[in-house]
Design goal:
The protein is mainly alpha-helical and 427 residues long. 74% of the residues lie in helices and 0% in strands. The chain has 22 helices and no strands.
């Protein structure tokens, strides 16, 4: 029997979700009000907000995820501050020598590779701005390059544990390792990226007239010492995280430790104030309130009911159920932000994974691929899209919804299909 509490939790979550989509600028306030409401009326007991032990588990709030994201955001800001991203993008532009296809492949590869390890918001903010400037210098239409970068960034985010917030949420919820994601998610994500290259590569000219191609592109001089120190600290944090299971260190401890290292390096390199000011506090708080909202769906039984429906639809078959998850979440991620989807999907997978014939981990990979890659479908599907298009608009390039959908949505569908086929082959 459906309880009043379940109906209330679903109604609040659905309303918040709609407001997230149409009032993106106010999503933090919306999440705070909704989360406060479900706690005040008792849909989420106050005692469920705090962890029950040093591992960070036992709470509706994924404290492990928040701590790890804090470290990743700080390192992303530090690497941007020392000029690494801009230097890399400008180096790619210079080495393309005015060849549009080489330029597109290089920028897309940078978006894919960087987004596998660094917050895609930072990656797209830098790449999109530079792409518009380079395209203008070479008399090129910047839109195909921008959309290729967005699609590649979302595919790259699906490849690793820390690549995209949905992966961090799923990975910490199920206590998965860096190696787990590299083994099971990288190849499907790579297949999606190859599809992006093939489709967008055909949309640009292979070469430019010599008079246009000769336009020089300024390359920023990289401050190698600070960049090496920042990369070293980031690499060290990732190394500890990769062996987290063997070392027995809680994920939250690695996140906090990494954050301390990042701040220490920032102050030592003279960028401390800039890093603290640039930290994305709003996103971290949004995740905190979002976890409370999803917790109301767990405590009232809404997730259990949804899991039962998916189990019946999939007939208890792993490949069918995983494919349903991948495509359902992928298409949903095109129209709503993928972070709330991943937060709601985690407890759903936990219930499905306990059913006969269904294994938890393959369903996790299918969910990660769907939520990350599917986010490329529309301008609001993922944070990378919103930031990249906003940066381009700041430079005077406006990408309309019809044009975005005409180019990116079919590419997203083809990328999802490629990822789905590889996922089936792997599992």
């Amino acid at each position: 029997m459906v309880s009043l509490a379940l109906v209330a939790a679903v109604a609040v979550f659905a309303l918040a979700y709609l407001l997230f989509t149409f009032r993106e600028r106010h999503r933090l306030l919306i999440a705070a009000v909704a989360a406060g409401g479900v706690v005040v009326v008792g849909l989420v007991p106050f005692g469920r907000l705090l962890p029950t032990g040093v591992s960070g588990q036992g709470s509706v709030v994924e404290w492990n995820t928040l701590a790890l994201l804090l470290a990743l955001f700080l390192f992303a800001a530090l690497l941007e501050e020392v000029g690494l991203f801009r230097w890399l993008a400008e180096e790619i532009a210079a080495r393309s020598h005015g060849r549009p296809r080489y330029l597109l492949f290089g920028l897309a590869l940078a978006a894919f590779g960087l987004s596998a390890f660094i917050n895609s918001i930072t990656v797209l903010l830098v790449l999109a701005t530079l792409t518009v400037k380079v395209a203008r210098a070479l008399a090129l239409d910047p839109v195909p390059y921008l959309l290729a970068e967005i699609s590649a960034s979302n595919a790259g985010g699906a490849a690793t544990f820390e690549g995209d917030p949905p992966n961090v949420i799923l990975g910490t919820y199920f206590q998965l390792s860096f190696a787990d994601f590299a083994e099971h998610a990288f190849l499907p994500a790579l297949a999606a990226f190859v599809v992006v290259l093939l489709i967008f590569g055909r949309s640009v000219r292979p070469a430019l007239p010599p008079s246009v191609a000769a336009i020089p592109v300024r390359v920023e001089v990289l401050r190698r010492g600070p960049a090496a120190a920042a990369l070293g600290g980031f690499g060290g944090t990732l190394a500890v995280f990769a062996f987290q299971g063997a070392l027995g260190i809680p994920v939250w401890a690695i996140g906090v430790g990494g954050a301390v290292v990042a701040l220490g390096l920032a102050w030592g390199l003279g960028h401390g104030r800039e890093i603290v000011a640039r930290l994305d506090y709003a996103t971290l708080l949004f995740f905190l309130f979002l976890f409370v909202l999803v917790g109301s769906l767990v405590t009232t039984g809404a997730i259990t009911a949804l899991a039962g429906g998916l189990q019946r639809a999939g007939g208890g078959n792993l490949l069918v159920t995983g494919t349903l998850l991948l495509w359902t979440l992928g298409l949903l991620s095109s129209v709503v932000n993928n972070v709330p989807l991943a937060a709601a999907a985690a407890p759903l997978i936990a219930i499905l994974g306990g059913s006969p014939g269904l294994a938890t981990r393959p369903l996790v990979w299918a969910t990660a691929l769907g939520t990350d890659i599917g986010g490329s479908g529309t301008p609001i599907g993922a944070s990378a899209n919103v930031v990249g298009l906003a940066a381009a608009k700041h430079e005077g390039v406006v990408v309309s919804w019809p044009r975005y959908l005409r180019i990116a949505f079919p590419t997203m569908l083809a990328s999802l299909a490629a990822a789905n086929l590889v996922w089936i082959f792997v599992h």
